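ok so i was messing around last nite and threw this chain in just to see what happens. nothing serious, just curious
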Amino acid sequence: MKTHLTPPEISIARWAGLLYLAIIFLGISSEVVFRSPLIDLSDAGGTARAILASTRNFQLSIAFDLIMALADAGLAVLLFVLFRPVAPTLALAALVFRLVQSVIIGANLMNLQAALLLLTRAQDVAALAPRQAEAMSALFLNLHGHGYDLGLVFFGINSLLTGVLIWRAGFIHRLFGVGIAAAGIVYLIGSTLRFFASELSAVFAPAYGVTAIAETGFCLWLLTAGTIKRSSA
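result:
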């Protein structure tokens, strides 16, 4: 069993860590800082006014998510290269599921753009009844939320596969694998609730703390280039 990384693999791990750090920063900034304060799906009119008053922030949220999706695709490739020696087929499967998630996140941004086009009248809305544009915009914003969770279904499976790869690798502590796999389970449950039992989503929300801890820990391990090794099994 391989117990350490070669110098080229250390470089790959560090670049992967930098991309992971960028993804965490961009994702949190986009959702928490720029977008969420503007959106209240129970108040289409208030949401419309908030977005029009902070159009630049809304556009920044789209830009940050787009860059995040690109970074995530790059990270998927680097993690594939890093874990391919552990289990080639499993690493390839993890790559595919993470790339699918990146594509969904990127394509899903069109829902945000559609909402913005309606509110800014960049799209002809003369045929719509008063406030109908606001209601349609809220629908697109809601669809974006569901689309994001759809992407997390594929990311959840990727996380489970990555957890197995970490568990089988000899150059990283198995605890990271357990954490990433647990994060995958949280993502899968959370997304399932979003589509089929949305009334339970708020109750389940604290479980996402597991994903924050697990992914931040894995990111830090990558940035330290494997100096934290797995204990013997």
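not much to say yet. The chain has eight helices and no strands.
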